[in-house]
Design a protein that fits this description.
six-stranded parallel sheet, 223 residues, elongated, alpha/beta
Length: 223
């Protein structure tokens, strides 16, 4: 990693952001560092995958709020095809769900767009050298999340789920079917199926059985 058209010691960088002025300004800053050369830019998740296949970047700076497929899904697909590429998220989204989803997708860094140039370049060097990095604000949130997991009740084991989704997952773990859950919660069967679909997506499972296993491993369902 690091070899390429920019010289043997330069990391090849792909920038993905749907705001051209931000992207161009970031490109100018990154290119000023002798350790990097910007080899491509993309405005969406789909275009990021296309450009990455063409330029084979070492590092990708990825926004999350993209048109088309999300930045999270773009990271997941990118690393499936190019597992050696390292991704740093740069976004305005500082909520727990996006932070955890980006980590699960394989991001090696998570910065907020308020980060100063020196912090961005330092993060790219760290990730390029095999490290993991978070901005100070994100690191504090991450520490708080991990602290909350330790000894947390089972219902908090899935922080990306809404309260209703956790309730539905718990009922699934209890062995209830969709119609029974709908009856218990006084909602339509379709509403339950929508919740279950969201649960599958957030837990990255493909079926009800896998979701139940995850739930019971976290302490939900029959003792």
């Amino acid at each position: 990693m690091g070899a390429g058209e920019g010289g043997p010691d330069r990391y090849r960088v792909l920038l993905v952001d749907n705001h051209p002025l931000f992207r161009q300004g970031l490109a100018a800053a990154v290119d000023l560092d002798d350790g990097f050369t910007v080899v491509g830019q993309a405005h969406s998740g789909e275009s990021a995958l296309e450009v990455a296949a063409r330029v084979l970047p070492d590092l990708v700076v990825m926004d999350l709020g993209l048109p088309g497929i999300s930045g999270i899904e773009a990271i997941r697909r990118l690393l499936r095809v190019h597992p050696g590429t390292r991704v740093v998220v740069m976004t305005t989204m500082d909520d727990d769900d996006n932070l955890l989803a980006a980590m699960r997708a394989g991001a090696r860094g998570y910065l907020l767009k308020a980060a100063v140039c020196e912090e961005i370049l330092r993060a790219l060097h760290t990730v390029g050298n095999g490290g993991v990095v978070f901005s100070s604000a994100v690191a504090e949130r991450l520490a708080a999340l991990f602290a909350s997991f330790a000894g947390a009740p089972a219902k908090e084991a899935f922080p990306t789920l809404t309260a209703r989704e956790r309730e539905v997952l718990g009922l699934l773990a209890d062995g209830l079917g969709y119609h029974q859950i709908a009856h218990r919660l006084f909602v339509a069967d379709k509403t339950v199926r929508n919740h279950v679909g969201s649960i599958f997506s957030k837990l990255q499972v493909n079926d009800r059985a896998a979701a139940i296993v995850r739930a019971r491993n976290a302490g939900l369902g029959p003792a």
